[in-house]
Specification:
By secondary structure, this protein is mostly helical. It is about 80% helix and about 0% strand. It has one domain: UbiA prenyltransferase (Tetracycline Repressor, domain 2). The protein is globular, with a radius of gyration of 19 Å.
Length: about 290
């Protein structure tokens, strides 16, 4: 295999797992880590947390592709996925990424080692929920919400209230934007008998639920700031976050596919990036 073929294989793999979407949960994990360390964490720990985050998300995405293989082939929006990589290699890479996650967690502390299989179950379980519950969006939210809690445990070896409140915010945030994203598959999910709140409530009501969830997200971010004793830069940064969430909901009112995809990635990437920058500015530069 020449370099061009290898590059093409890597590109296909990164497209398959939507690697760019790693930016959604990662900043919340890093923000919790910085707060837990009350400053810059040890380099070794930071690198191990990064490996765990990337490996766990990769495993979750590969499990999703593997278990939804036939469904994705029938969905026009996702039909190209099965052409990027064979199902056999997907399973092999799933096992490798899962093993890498457990191995990295084992190097942090005993709690992260013992909880690593539980974390893998949580992040992968979402992929099968659409078969039996309309609450599937909340399971996705929970999969990403464990990131700040896991980072806190990595630093302190315990669970505390601040990461739990932050995790609640992440759960509401992710569930909200997944409801928006799921409007694209409304007709397909109804036809296939798949479950989602969009199917159960209809698009209009589902979008209103998403608005409520994002309001709760803002409340949780405020609560985290108070509990973590963050300063005015953090609370000031909540204003552009609120503006971004408002823009997200305004952009999808006409259910334009391009607007939904733009709102899904650009807006939510902005939210998580602003959060991390605000936390770092408080803990790393103002203390």
């Amino acid at each position: 295999m020449n370099s061009a073929d290898r590059e093409n294989s890597v590109t296909r793999f990164l497209r398959l797992i939507r690697f760019s979407h790693t930016i959604f949960a990662l900043p919340f994990a890093l923000g919790a880590l910085v707060v837990a360390a009350n400053g810059l964490p040890a380099t070794r720990l930071l690198l191990l947390v990064l490996v765990c985050m990337v490996a766990a998300r990769t495993a979750a995405m590969l499990f999703n592709r593997w278990v939804d293989w036939s469904i994705d082939q029938r969905n026009p929006r996702t039909a190209v996925r099965h052409t990027l990589l064979g199902r056999g290699p997907v399973l092999l890479l799933l096992l490798i990424s899962s093993a890498l996650f457990v191995a990295a967690a084992a190097q942090i502390n005993r709690w992260t080692l013992w909880l690593s299989p539980v974390a893998l179950v949580i992040v992968c379980f979402y992929s099968i929920t659409k078969r039996f519950t309309h609450a599937t969006h909340f399971f996705l939210g929970a999969a990403l919400a464990i990131a700040p809690i896991a980072a806190w445990i990595a630093q302190r070896g315990e669970i505390a209230l601040p990461p739990i409140v932050l995790a609640t915010g992440v759960l509401c945030w992710v569930s909200g934007f997944d409801l928006i994203y799921a409007t694209q598959d409304y007709e397909f999910d109804r036809r296939e008998g798949l479950h989602s709140l969009v199917v159960k409530l209809g698009i209009g009501r589902a979008l209103r639920v998403a608005q409520l969830l994002h309001l709760l997200t803002v409340c949780a971010l405020i609560g985290f700031g108070i509990l973590a004793h963050l300063g005015p830069i953090y609370f000031g940064a909540l204003l552009p976050i609120i503006a971004a969430l408002w823009f997200e909901h305004r952009s999808v009112r006409d259910l334009d596919l391009a607007a939904i995809n733009r709102a899904f990635f650009q807006t939510n990437a902005f939210v998580s990036a602003i959060f991390l920058c605000a936390v770092c500015a408080d803990r790393l530069f103002l203390r």
